[in-house]
Amino acid sequence: MNDLKPLSGVRVLDLTWVYAGPFATMLLRDLGADVVKVEGPPVGDYTRTFPPMRNSWSGYFYMLNRGKKSVALNLKNARGKQVFLEMVKHFDVVAENFVAGTMDRLGLGYDAIKQANPRIIYASISGFGSFGPYSNLPCVDPVAQAMGGLMSMTGYPDMPPLKTGPAIADSLAGLYLAVGILAALRSREQTGEGHKLEVSMMDSVFSVLEESVIRASMTGNALPARGNTDPLGAPWDAFPTKDGKWLMVCVLGSDKFDKIFRHIGRHDIADKYKGDEEEIIEARSRDLLLINQAFAEWTKTQDSRELRNFLLELRIPCGEVKDVVELLDDPHLRARNMVVDIDHPALGRVKTFNLPIRFFTSNVGISPQDKPMDPDIGQHSYEVLHDLLGLEDKDIEVLRSEGAIWA
């Protein structure tokens, strides 16, 4: 196993905050990049105050900022801007997720940064991007889910629109930004030129609506909210069991449909919906609620293990609905080192998720022996200014007295 991580040597100057941007730079950090957060007054990244809290320290902040460094730099201060542009010369990537146009208004937009470092990769996330009719609108994750189409498809028919539990629009935008940065780094190797790239949260959501986009263009109809069901399969839903659990069951194909309903003694249903003709498939889809109800009456008489074993013998995809407390001790996630135990000086013993990308020839993510900590505000200001920029102690003190370094 090679200890050199894939992004070792890549430096990321990270102005991102809250979730989408820090999630992107967390992925780059886990892949080996050196990530330095630039945090402005008065509190730095707002997630430092987000729950869960222990000993005045945020578990939310730790989750996204493990292994990063922090410089407390005021970008509204003239000297702070000068220091920032000096820092840019030593980095490969500048990442930010402010409202579109914020960096330009600070005088630190792409043109200014490119002048300082022509090879820089400037990557940004915003709700709607830097152009288009919505570009100046404020946005947070649920707004992107709403305007990107996801909320119209989530939930149950005849009920209000529903967003997903976790902030999936933020996560998607972060993933896309990380992919864009990696592509830009590869391009720079080939051309020697830097890049400016951006990701919109609304664009990100719209791009993962599966077949809904092309279907709407072909039929003129939008897919309605359909809960846990899917028109491609039957039975298809989360089904209750005798021992109080729920099992997600996804049955595709008439053969398995027939075996299930004959096994539970519902030959009437097996006979009525037998076959793979188009009209039969449409009938199963149209009557899915009745089919699911009939199957649910039987699953209530089975415990979850019996039901799962029966379905897996037929090679039918199924899985128990688990909550996060259960997942912390899930044997599969544990075997794959996806749940990481951390002894944190403020949070105590906590568990977090690992990078889900596996390299079989290089260590990425958090190894069992790693204990990546999150930085205090400005913890690495001196290190970066002195060791990287070569400033003398007296120069750093002047920057502090002028408010350019604020913590």
* Residues in β-strands, percent: 5-15%
Question: How many beta-strand segments?
Answer: 13
What class would the helix/strand composition place it in?
A: alpha/beta
So how many helices?
18
Poorly predicted runs of 5 or more residues: none
Percent of residues in helices: 25-40%
Q: Alpha-carbon distance between the termini? A: 40 Å
Structure write-up:
- This protein is α/β, with parallel strands linked by helices.
- It is 39% helix and 14% strand.
- It is built from 18 helices and 13 strands.
- The strands form four sheets. The chain has a six-stranded parallel beta sheet with strand order 5-2-1-6-7-8, with helices on both faces.
- α1 (20-30) crosses α7 (168-191).
- The mean pLDDT is 96.
Walk me through the topology.
Layout: E1 11-14, H1 20-30, E2 34-39, E3 53-54, E4 57-58, H2 59-65, E5 69-72, H3 78-88, E6 93-96, H4 102-105, H5 110-116, E7 121-126, H6 141-147, H7 168-191, E8 195-200, H8 201-206, H9 212-219, E9 236-240, E10 246-250, H10 254-263, H11 267-272, H12 278-286, H13 288-299, H14 304-313, E11 318-320, H15 324-327, H16 331-335, E12 339-344, E13 348-353, H17 381-388, H18 393-401
Parallel strand pairs: 1-2, 1-6, 2-5, 6-7, 7-8
Antiparallel strand pairs: 3-4, 9-10, 10-11, 12-13
Helix pairs in contact: 1-7
